[in-house]
Amino acid sequence: MKIGIVSDIHEDIVALKKAFKVLEDAGCDEVICLGDIVGYKVNTYHYLDTRSAHECIAMVRANCTAVVIGNNDLYQVKKVPRYNGNIELPDNWYELDFFERKKISDNRMFLYEDVQLNALITAEDTAYLESLPELVVREYNGHKIFFSHFAYPDLHGITTNFPKMAGEYQEHLAFIKQQGCKTGLSGHMHFEGVSICNEDRIERNPFGKYKLADELQWLYGPCVARCQFNNGVLIFDTEKFEIEAVPLLFI
User: Fold this and answer.
1) Does the structure show a pLDDT above 80 at 251?
2) CB-based contacts of 200: which residues, under 8 Å, 6+ apart?
3) CB 113 within 8 A of CB 40
4) pLDDT tens string 113-125
5) In this structure, is the dihedral angle defined by the CA atoms of residues 25, 204, 176 and 172, taken in order, positive or negative?
6) How remote is the C-alpha of 81 from its chain's centroid?
7) Which of the 8 DSSP states describes residue 213?
8) Which burial class, exposed, middle or buried, applies to 201 when counting CB atoms under 10 A from its CB (0-12, 13-18, 19+)?
């Protein structure tokens, strides 16, 4: 069975259509979305004329068998997550003004208003984003796989923390194990290719195909959106236990 993985779409409907075509041509049996369907930052993305949060949500709803919520999705629907990176957030977090939240966060959290445009979505789109789970566990060929947008204790990527060493991800690996899984898959980082993190090291691999070890591990893949990194998708072959990072090759 082949599982397609899309993540970090950021309202890029042009790239998302190409992503689903790539996964269809590869013979994927299902597709899972790892969040950030919406969220357009003017200092990061350059497809203002074609961005469409509404179309991206509709396409994800029609084509994905499981979807988790990302940090940008949370912001657009003003939802405070359960897994918040160990930062105490008041229940009225989104009722506070920008400068109050900036003071509380002390530069530890993304605040969005200074760089992000509001997503142009319907009430039904908003209700759909609000309904998305914070994590998903699926079993394939005897392997239980953990899906999230980012890494515990910040499963959604609401903080500005981007650990760089394998030792900094031990909490997330332990959390994957607590869910009865050995393998976790996430997005959020936007790095091209696929990064594979175990208890000892992180391997940042270029686009290509990689055999996975039967060990506790966390993988994070590329973004669908066109940004400063080359964009792409992941294909997880559950029978061969292989991961393939496929570029979308925009010129």
Assistant:
1) no
2) 166
3) no
4) 999 999 999 999 9
5) negative
6) 15
7) P
8) exposed
Share of the chain above pLDDT 70, in %: 99
Alpha-carbon distance 11 to 13, whole Å? Answer: 6
* Sequence-distant (≥ 6) Cβ neighbours of residue 130 within 8 angstroms: 77, 79
Per-residue pLDDT of 81-90, as tens digits, reads 999 888 888 8
For residue 151, give the nearest of 140, 138, 167, 162 by alpha carbon.
162
Cross-sheet strand order for the sheet of 136-140: 136-140, 143-147, 183-186, 217-220, 194-197, 202-205
Distance of alpha carbon 78 from alpha carbon 85, whole angstroms: 17
Instruction: Supply the pTM of this predicted model.
Output: 0.96
Asked if 7 and 191 touch (Cβ cutoff 8 Å), the reply is: no
Amino acid of residue 173: L
- Tally Cβ neighbours within 10 Å of residue 82: 8
Could you tell me if 129 and 57 are in contact, meaning their C-beta atoms sit under 8 angstroms apart?
yes
